[in-house]
Design brief:
The chain is mainly α. The chain has a domain of 32 residues. It contains two helices and no strands. It is elongated and about 75 Å long.
Length: 72
């Protein structure tokens, strides 16, 4: 598990470094509202995922996992 986290962190660092290294000027106008909309979408996704895993996954797992009674 630690190795996967290490590799994921290393990959993210390399991608950010490459993005900064090969930066080009943008000849377009980006509306500031677009960034806020993207941040809102990402935060809604994270909150929805957290809600699903904490609240809704328990009843779903209990329906999927069936315990068979042990016969003496």
């Amino acid at each position: 598990m630690k190795l996967h986290v290490y590799h994921a962190g290393l990959t993210v660092c390399m991608m950010v470094s490459l993005l900064c290294l090969f930066e080009r000027p943008a000849y377009a106008y980006i509306d500031p509202g677009s960034g806020i909309l993207a941040c809102q979408a990402i935060s809604a996704f994270v909150a929805g995922t957290f809600y699903y895993w904490t609240v809704l996954s328990s009843p779903t797992e209990s329906r999927l996992i069936r315990f068979e009674p042990q016969v003496g």
